[in-house]
Specification:
This protein is of the alpha+beta class and 363 residues long. 47% of the residues lie in helices and 19% in strands. The strands form 3 sheets. Strands 2-1-11-10-9-8 form a 6-stranded antiparallel β-sheet. Strand 9 and strand 10 form a beta hairpin. Helix 1 runs antiparallel to helix 2.
Length: 363
């Protein structure tokens, strides 16, 4: 997870210093009025004391709210996808969950019907062209806009599915205090986000009475809603309900979606701009066991950005935060998709050193 932004941190620090200076000036004026009112001998000096006291209270309150509203946390997960143009598919990376799930969902989507297969072939041609185009060029942006960004839609669906599972696990924890929640059901989410992969693999499209489903899993006995289904072709259908704190809302944005709660707004944005990411040649040859030329594979960068903006009145709530700690749990789960964290997980630097040593032994 990338969290070092020197220019952004400097601007944030500068703004904080300016706010503190302004606060100090206003507070000194208010304190002067209060002291003058308390120590003066005039008949109306008490008015200055009252005005000074009110100003001190207002200044402290406003400054606290401004500081709290400036608390914005941003988490950027820099993932990667390896595309092999010869096989016309993305390579599965062992121990890298986002890659495995991506490959599974995309293959299911392609074999779903002929239109999806045609759409995929068109995307393959564009992925080949992206590697030969200058980064951030107008031609690159045009290609991505034309293909309606299938890859970004798939990453959005994967995050939505993971968030749904994480929320279900969190709120079904028997040790969690009873919280008031709101459920946004699968069909409502589909209307809001209009995600093509959710539309294809929603359990709303499954008839459990048909015999071509090898695996059927229902939710709790009260709702009797189909939760997971698997057909004879290996396609997985999932129910992506969101259990959220009461009065929460889900809205679609230009690059993703935002969850609005009473305490904060959680904004997810998904970016696939065709930018190239870097992996060592030994990684593809030895870790993935791909005996192709390194330059035959395209390593693309995929970014998931989660931004948390706190509401000003959240400052005054003390006992309601148990209903929102699912955010910490989910963001921690999301870290596994980050390239750096994944490479650290498999101890790649040590493995690379060992590979180099074994391939450069003097005989």
């Amino acid at each position: 997870m990338r969290d070092n932004f020197p220019i952004k941190d400097f601007i944030t620090t500068r703004n904080k210093i300016l706010n503190i200076v302004s606060f100090s000036i206003l507070l000194s004026i208010a304190v002067s009025l209060l002291v003058f009112g308390l120590t003066g001998n005039g008949d109306n000096d008490f008015i200055f004391a009252i005005i000074g006291g009110i100003l001190i209270f207002l200044i402290l309150t406003v400054f606290s709210i401004i500081l709290f509203m400036s608390l914005k946390r941003e988490f950027i997960c820099e993932g990667f996808l390896i595309y092999n143009p010869i096989k016309q598919r993305f390579l599965s990376v062992p121990e890298y969950d986002i890659s495995l799930q991506f490959d599974e969902c995309l293959n299911s989507y392609i074999r779903k019907d002929k239109e999806n297969k045609k759409e995929w072939r068109c995307l393959c041609e564009k992925l080949m062209r992206l590697s030969d185009i200058e980064t951030d060029s107008e031609e690159q942006n045009r290609i991505i806009i034309e293909d309606k960004n299938i890859i970004r839609d798939l990453v959005e669906y994967m995050v939505l599915d993971s968030l749904s599972s994480s929320l279900i696990n969190y709120y079904h924890n028997p040790y969690l205090k009873k919280c008031k929640t709101k459920k946004i059901v699968d069909s409502e989410i589909l209307k809001i986000l209009n995600n093509r992969f959710q539309a294809q693999f929603s359990t709303e499209k499954v008839d459990p009475n048909q015999n071509n489903y090898s695996e059927i899993v229902f939710g709790n006995k009260i709702e009797e809603k189909l939760f997971i289904a698997k057909d004879g072709f290996g396609n997985m259908y999932r129910r992506t309900d969101l259990i959220l704190p009461k009065a929460s809302k889900l809205l679609k944005t230009e690059y993703g979606f935002v969850i609005k709660t009473r305490m904060f707004d959680l904004n997810f944005e998904f970016y696939f701009n065709g930018n190239q990411s870097h992996l060592d040649s030994e990684f593809i040859e030895y870790y993935l066991n791909e005996k192709t030329n390194y330059f035959d594979n395209r390593v693309f960068e995929i970014d998931v950005c989660a931004t948390v903006r706190y509401k000003p009145w959240a400052l005054f709530f003390i006992s309601s935060w148990d209903n929102y700690k699912w955010l910490d749990v989910f963001l921690k789960e999301m870290q596994v998709a980050d390239k750096k964290i994944f490479l650290d997980k498999i101890n790649w630097n040590t493995l690379k050193t060992q590979i180099w040593a074994m391939t450069h032994v003097v005989k």
